[in-house]
Amino acid sequence: MKAMRIYLSVPHMGTLEQANVDEAFASNWLSSAGPHLQAFEREVAEALGGGLATLATSSGTAALHLVLRAAGVGPGERVAVSTLTFAGSVFPIDYLGARPVFLDSEPVSGNLDPALLREYLRAAAARSELPKALIAVHLYGQHADLDPIAAACAEYGVLLIEDAAESLGSTYKGRQTATTAPLSVLSFNGNKIITTTGGGMVVARDPALIARMRNWANQAREPAVEYLHRQVGYNYRMSNVLAAIGRGQLKVLEDRVRARRAVAERYRRALGDVPGLELQGEAPWGRHTRWLSVIYLDPAIHPGGPRRLIEALGGRGIEARPVWRPMHTQPLYAEAERVGGAVAERLYGSGVCLPSSSNLTTSEQDEVIEAVRQVLVRADGAAPRPAPRSSGSSSLAGPRPRRG
User: Fold this and answer.
1) pTM for the full model?
2) Tens digit of each residue's pLDDT, the chain (404 residues)
3) Which fold would CATH assign to domain 253-375?
4) Residues 6+ apart with CB under 8 A from 62
5) Where in the chain is the domain with CATH 3.90.1150.10?
6) Distance between terminal CA atoms of the chain?
């Protein structure tokens, strides 16, 4: 067994983060207020292109909860959402007593299918069952095809929300992620392309909405000497210390995107001749950050599917995971309304996420590549040629990843 496990996606810290944290400690701004928090919100808005209001939160899930409440979502109402996603995209719907409606993916990006959405909204309007909002999720660093999605929502009066938790740094037709919809959310969890170790952010075009959500995130305290409350609030604010980390991380976002794209490109070159294996493509409408490198296995050639590969890699000290299990197949949502689902199920049944950290070394990636090739030898014994080894320096070289 190797001395150190190769993880899927780990934090990649530099010197700026440590300097900012030291300053926060020295100034004693350690809680949910302070100059780094205000600066981080401002700098994220600027990085996304300006003209935006932002609110740093304790998690991306908390950010989405605030957004849905600001949208007026209440008990019994429908909220449509991509079925191929993490549970954090869905749980806030339940927090408010609303009902998720799961929509299928299109096969190019694995994200929400715009044509299917339009069909659903047309039928829902005829039944007077339109959803209050639609959450369009951008998976693994690649944008959904958002313009037709936004057009359909506008036509039927449905609020569009971008779940950009996995897509910071990606673009759509030249626009930054989280800038098309009126309300969007980001995540800075420890495994994301940049991290505050834990945290999220609301992005909005209406500063008044951000002000309302800021109050809720601060326990809905009224401006009074005593703790006065007229409505329910939450402890959802990011701390100044974590924002200090985020400010350092934000400065190297483009470096992190380049590194992860280089990891994916090397997988493509080194594994491209493995029968029945395909690296997820890049949709023509924008830049894929390759937050995670996803491969798909042809079940006719690899009947063991993702599970066999994931278990075999795990035995070699390499972490890999299936793509998100479609939410309509989760036991919790067995009775939930859904539209389609076959595409998402197919992607789940064939997809594997490989180690993708921006500080993944070339030697570590060599280990992953060689292990994948060894596991996916064809049943007739005809294996592809040996994986090419790296030589010389590389932009991927760096300290060995730490566990996130």
Assistant:
1) 0.92
2) 455 899 999 999 999 999 999 988 898 878 788 899 999 999 999 999 979 999 999 999 999 999 999 999 999 999 999 999 999 999 999 999 999 999 999 999 999 999 999 999 999 999 999 999 999 999 999 999 999 999 999 999 999 999 999 999 999 999 999 999 999 999 999 999 999 999 999 999 999 999 999 999 999 999 888 889 999 999 999 999 999 999 999 999 999 999 999 999 999 999 999 999 999 999 999 999 999 999 999 999 999 999 999 999 999 999 999 999 999 999 999 999 999 999 999 999 999 999 999 999 999 999 999 999 999 975 434 445 555 544 333 332 333 333 33
3) Aspartate Aminotransferase, domain 1 (3.90.1150)
4) 200, 217, 234, 236
5) 253-375
6) 20
CA–CA distance from 155 to each of 144, 150, 161 (Å)?
19, 9, 15
C-alpha of 300 from chain center:
30
Backbone angles phi, psi at 347, to 5 degrees: -65, -40
Q: Where does the chain hold its CATH 3.40.640.10 domain(s)?
A: 15-250
- Give the residue carrying structure tokens 């996130």: 404
